[in-house]
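Q: Start with the shorter request: fold the first protein.
A: Done. Sequence, then structure:
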Amino acid sequence: MPLPRPLVSIIALCIAGGAATLLTGALYTKAPATVAVDADRALDAEITRFVEQASYQKTVTFAGIVAAKEDTRLAFEIPGTLISLDLRVGDTAEAGQVVARLDTRSLVANQSATAGRLAQAKAQGELARLQFDRIRDLFAKGAVSQGQFDEARLGLDSGKAAETALEAELSALNVALAKSELRLPFTATVNARHASIGDVVASGSPIYDITGTEGREAIIGIPAQVATRLAVDEVVTVYIDGDPIVGRILGISSKLDLRTRTQTIRIALPDDSEATPGQVAVLHHAITIETAGGWLPMTALTEGGRGLWTALVARANQEGKIVTERAILEIIDFADDRVYVRGSLKNGDKVIASGTHRLVPGMAINPVEAAQ
């Protein structure tokens, strides 16, 4: 005979309750007993002395590039057709060497024509001078009128003006002929060539990019507060590819770069440095920060929240035992594995240097001086 449904539900609830009771009992049976802590046993703790100071030194690093003392783009000052280009990328030439030429046939023709006109003007000028001399003598004797004298005088002046104009025109043609040859302004190496033989180039069109073979400088941007600590002719060390190179400050810009908010310094590098333009140059500079505090190993600090940090200090309690106390700190700066801090520490305090995760405030410890 089947049992009534209400009775079946009651029996199921009883079985479930009994099982839960048995499971709970089993868990409590398997749970380990709480281990008692020996409050009198002091743990060894490595300590370091907090030394308070009014300021600290910090080495800051600034990066720039190596630049050539002379670096420019060569171009003709006059237009024309290229008839020769003597250098290619990587070639080196001496100062004053002709490295490109323009077609000068039209200039030479104009030069010859102008020279002929100048010779004619000089002949006419000589004639005007002879006529003026005769008229002047006759005018002094009253043999000619004032108008004839003035006409002779002005004719002489006109001839002189014509000669001057033609001499200037001839001089300009001579200059143009000289500028039809492109010469190196200094001993240099070609970095780029922008034209080919036969090209018709305009005035100012680039022909070569060149870099001087002598004189290398490091161009580095530094903040204004650091620039005020440097001086022209001061000797500094620049690092290029990790190699130290001793240089001398040539100049410091007097205004901030609007983009980087830095001032530019130029550092002369020795000729034997073999630095290549475009390489990264790094300047390390020690500065003094006027902020009171002290150095601690990074392992001594524990994050305390709200931007603050904590450290444990070893102090004697009323019973004469050495126990730990918490100190609240603010980190000012970092340097390798150390931090510069200020806060509730006092000069000479014994700070737990490491292993703070094993300790809590009020715990008895056995201080052990950290190896220096």
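Q: Next, the second protein, separately.
A: Sequence, then structure:
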Amino acid sequence: MEKKGFPYLIKSCSLLNNKGYNFRCRIVGEGPDRSALEYLIKDHKLEDKVYLMPYAESEELKKIYSETDIFVLPCIIARNGDRDAIPTVLVDVMAIGIPVISTNISGIPELIDNGENGFLVPEQSVEELAEAIEKLISDKELRINLGKKGIEKVKRQFDANDNVSVYTKLLN
């Protein structure tokens, strides 16, 4: 899907690869843009770094997340205006302490406080996306701290019991 911004992630991976970083990027899911993404990966000579993985069910996602150091979702506003509000996958990975990088569009800044519990970059900015990834690749302590603060934010904002309690009080 165009709104996920994966071409910008691949191009950022190319910049990181050119700087000599050792990494593995996995893009999970199927979609109509798969052949274009395959072409970009090949064009940037990233076949040994960037992998397109099929759609994964919950149990497989848990395994993938357990092997993940950084989660990047460079959302964009698609040409037809389509966009993610607050992608639930960001909430999911923050809830388990994975540091996140996304873009400052739609409702994403309501979830990610730039520099506090993740990083926000401008949409379509390959260089700034690569810089944010580079910061997290290079600094394990920063990854841990952002992950911990991500857990706190999700608990504070998305705890079902707290939200029901607030909603109930509003109705009374």
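Q: Describe the second briefly.
A: The CA atoms of residues 103 and 120 lie 5 Å apart. The first strand starts at residue 25 and ends at 28.
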